[in-house]
Amino acid sequence: MKKAGKIFGLILAAVVGISVAPAAGSGTDPTNDPGAVLKEFLRAMYSRDAEAAYALLSVADRAVKSIGEYAGENGRFDGRALQLARTLADAIRFGDVKTVVEEDVAQITFDASLPDANSNAIADLVLGFDRPRLAQVTAEEAAARLASLRQQAASGRLPMIHAAGETWKLVRENGQWRVHVNWADAVEVRFEAAVHDGLGWEFRPTRDRVMARPGETITVSYRAKNLGAVASTGKARHIVAPDKTAEFLEIVACFCFLDQTLAVGEEVELPLSFRVGFEAPDTVKKIQVRYEFYPTDSFAALAKDEKRAER
């Protein structure tokens, strides 16, 4: 399995919950310049402009994932959040770019520097890309925040993270270059759910499976509903199969880290962000993840039993 560069993970690390979009009005025409197309794609991915990024994917990749699936896995910004993210995406810098074209296939190797939106300097200006908070600021304040980001970028004061030796593949389709992620050859991650010990909940994944490239951070979700007659609290654990694949599944953020309390009839969406480790060997083709919810007292007893068994 040919692995895309680590920039998949870095983009998600650099920008909490966003994917890159081209700068407003950039309008790159993806024809004879595969490097320009790749840069536009990565900027669209960084700013979480799902439609712009998806449009630059190969036909083969779009056959594996719909735009809805892609946007759900990677997030989608709009309004002021997208404006701010695009401004940061403009500050992405590419270096040591080497392009090799053989007929309708281009291989591009490069280094990249990305604004680190998790840094305090940026997070404070973009309000963590929190849409409700951004919607409350005045137009003047929003413009001032954009101007400050541009000034910091122009003066080289934005905190950056770096990726070296990235290698990406593009294919020419009907005379236009498109990014070939090759999801068809990605790791299939399947999701299951169960409820134990009398917890009166309905619990299920919203999607049964996703295709994940090593290093690609993906967000999916489960739904839980309290069908009981009283409010109740549960806690989940996950089981990965086959056992040998567990070391290659990295949980980035998960509802299982905290107790979940649901009122009678309450239904919630529980997000899960994960990645298949970049070091996963080509032999890892499928990973099954099973989340099991228990009443909190049962979960505590189960955890104690498991610790005793490990001794």
Write a brief structural summary:
The chain contains 10 helices and 13 strands.
Task: Describe, in plain words, how this protein is organized in 3D.
The protein has 311 residues and is of the alpha+beta class. The protein contains ten helices and 13 strands. The strands form three sheets. Strands 7-5-13-9-11 form a five-stranded mixed sheet. β3 and β4 form a beta hairpin. It is globular.
Measured between the Cα atoms of the first and last residue, the distance is: 38 Å
Helix content: 25-40%
Tell me about the largest β-sheet. 5 strands, mixed
Count every helix, treating DSSP H or I runs of 4 or more residues as helices. Answer: 10
- What would you report as the Rg, rounded to the nearest angstrom? 21 Å
What structural category characterises the helix and strand content?
Answer: alpha+beta
List how many beta strands DSSP finds: 13
Give a quick set of tags describing it.
311 residues; alpha+beta; Ctag/Cox11 (Pfam 04442); 2 domains; 13 strands
Write the layout of secondary structure elements.
Elements: H1 7-14, H2 34-46, H3 50-55, H4 59-64, H5 67-74, H6 79-89, E1 93-102, E2 105-115, H7 120-126, H8 131-136, H9 139-154, E3 160-173, E4 176-179, E5 187-195, E6 201-205, E7 209-212, E8 217-226, E9 232-241, E10 249-254, E11 260-262, E12 267-276, E13 286-295, H10 296-310
Parallel strand pairs: 5-13
Antiparallel strand pairs: 1-2, 2-3, 3-4, 5-7, 6-8, 8-12, 9-11, 9-13, 10-12
Helix pairs in contact: 6-9
